[in-house]
Design brief:
112 residues; alpha/beta; five-stranded mixed β-sheet; 4 helices; globular
Length: 112
């Protein structure tokens, strides 16, 4: 079970993830990212503190959003509260050098 909450802030959208993101639940993440980008918001922070599993489908969603936000220098995707389990997965996938991560959501949001 996964819960994805999208919050529109002044300079970016904060998407809070909670639970397990696998091939069954990753479409929820894709939908939240798509809603932000369709609304013209290309500065996105993903708070992954409560994520227990981050599978390949979720990684694809993250990379898709990263590419679309960075296209034409429109914006960026940042990560907040990356727990050790998620950090290990993203490191193995080679994502961490590309996407900035912050210790908390306030710092990540403030970086825009």
């Amino acid at each position: 079970m996964a819960t994805t909450t999208r919050t529109s802030l002044k300079h970016c959208d904060l998407i809070t993830l909670d639970g397990r993101y696998d091939s069954q639940t990753a479409p929820e993440l894709v939908q939240a990212l798509r809603e932000s980008m369709d609304a013209g918001v290309y500065h996105i922070v993903l708070d992954v503190e409560k994520v227990t599993y981050f599978g390949s489908a979720a990684i694809r969603a993250l990379v898709m959003a990263y590419k679309e936000c960075r296209r034409f220098n429109r914006g960026d995707v940042r990560l907040a509260n990356v727990n050790p389990r998620v950090q290990q997965v993203l490191d193995m996938a080679g994502i961490l050098p590309l996407i900035q991560s912050f210790d908390d959501a306030v710092l990540a949001v403030g970086s825009f």
